[in-house]
Amino acid sequence: MPDAEGADTRTRSPAHAALGFLALSVLAAATAASAAAQTTAAPTFHIVATTSDLASLARSVAGDLAQVDGIVPPGADPEAFEPRPSDLAKLKGASVIVRVGLGYDHWLDRLLSMHGDASVNRGGTGYVDASVAIPLLEVKGRTLDPANQDGHAHGLANPHYWLDPGNAELITGGIAEAMIRVDSPTTRKVIANRAEFLDRLKVRLAQWEGRLRPHRGAPLLAYHNTWPYFARRFRLDIVDVIESKEGVSPSPARLAKLAGLIRERRIRVILHEPFAPEEASLLLARRTGATVLKLAPSVGSLPDAADYVSLLDYNVAALARALSPAPD
């Protein structure tokens, strides 16, 4: 008879041993698969973009291959941004750096000089100026000297080119090329991510164009010169801007002239940025009956503009509503 501990010490049958080995094998395989999945999901890249718009587009290309960080906080005015010492730390370990260019984020040159990594500086494998190949508007015939920058954010041309969704193909193409240069084994995944995003964007673009098609040629007034690319894409007419010189409030004489223009052209909507001073726009609205409409110039500048696609979703829907005839 077995002793008191016989139930614990007696020899198990071959069938029991086989079942135990199988259970251990299954557990080991599951653990290995979990570890492999975690390794696969670990980001290969660290991408830093100067703005929330470029960061959102970079995430669309990178997917789970990269950690993507922005420098200008969402909701802040990028044209009034001044980097802090803590922003230099954001560049640490960056494989790819993406900028708007055209003088818009001229402060990045100082950070890159202090950072000292040639691979993400001008000409480096991980450096992306997203304005390259963009069909620019309001081009100025001068060069930009990063060491002698006057701080004006529209240095070489109008820099708000991301607000034309058609330009997303060129922007994401530059980001994808840099990622592939830095780490060629990711080529297939990067290309697939970008293609999936562009397919989705193509569908949305057709919807956006359909939503604004009834309002083609509609005259608009803008507070700041943010919207020419958006207007070109959707065939809108930005008649004038309130802020004729950046950061300078309009004079009473200019406001009187703009009020006359609104009446003459029957302008119904004044486009306004969330972080711009409201006094002039509201004054013109009271004098003329026009509507002040806040649109999102960048990702995160309004709550409904959480990423690149929702930014355009919001702007198109809000503008279409504002331009539609009032219900009887």
Descriptive overview:
The chain has 328 residues and is of the alpha/beta class. It has two domains: 45-206, Nitrogenase molybdenum iron protein domain (Rossmann fold, 3-Layer(aba) Sandwich), CATH 3.40.50; 214-323, Nitrogenase molybdenum iron protein domain (Rossmann fold). It contains eleven helices and eight strands. It has helices spanning 6-9, 14-41, 52-62, 85-89, 108-115, 168-182, 187-212, 228-234, 252-265, 279-288, 308-323, and strands at 45-49, 66-70, 96-99, 127-129, 219-222, 237-241, 269-272, 291-294. The chain has a four-stranded parallel sheet, covered by helices on one side. Strands 6-5-7-8 form a four-stranded parallel sheet, with helices on both faces. α7 (187-212) runs parallel beside α11. The longest helix is centred in the first third of the chain and has 28 residues, at 14-41. The chain is globular.
